[in-house]
Hints:
Layout: H1 3-18, H2 20-42, E1 47-48, E2 51-52, H3 53-71, H4 73-82, H5 86-92, H6 97-125, H7 136-157, H8 161-178, H9 190-196, H10 200-213, H11 219-244
Helix pairs in contact: 1-6, 2-3, 2-6, 3-6, 3-7, 3-10, 4-7, 6-7, 6-11, 7-10, 7-11, 10-11
Amino acid sequence: xxxxxxAVLYRELSIFRKRLKKQLLSQSLSPLLYLIAFGWGxxxxxxVGDLSYMSFLIPGLITMSSLNQSYAISGELNISxxxxxxxxxxxxxxxxxxxxxxxxxxxxxxxxxISGLMIFAFAIVFNVKLQFNAAFIPALLLHxxxxxxxxxxxxxxxxxxxxxxxVNNFVITPMIFLCGTFYPVDRLPVFFKAIVHLLxxxxxxxxxRASLTGGVINPLYILLLFAYSVVFFLTAIAALKKxxx
Length: 245
């Protein structure tokens, strides 16, 4: 049982292990630059509610960085699909669609969690004190799972690398900048506020930030993250079945 899942996950981890140092170095650069530019550059001059901007920013960076890494599997899936025809081999093997998608999604979760944990190290270096709440763990797992499932979906739907780039440019990047990673979404105009509350990243940011800054965690937001995870996982399975047909 789940042998197919273990096989898919093992393949991805074997590849990831070979380039682990480069991956860690690469994925640490962007949040570090944000911390220097926004944290040191403006940190002392800005207060958000009763939080210093650095305390406000760190949970946002954890959310952003883990999203980037969990969703980044979409690019690698494209390469596997278009050049190495890996999914054709999966689909001819006695492995269910559920196991294939689950293996890829769990790999995305692992990448996202590693990236998120790296930001904790930066918080220590930048002397930012966080108030850890146990709700952070399920929130981070749901957050990374839904975006890795979304990555599987988009990588199965797009026709080429240009299509994947369009999704990144018109969906993922705007979501990162509009959904409260760097500022409270309450400050947005009504029109944009309505849009961002349709996007899952808004709820990921709210829950993860509240779980690390002593804020109030709304259980409804966790349920929404769970619902998004289920929807994106099912769409990934449906997209994979369409590829097979």
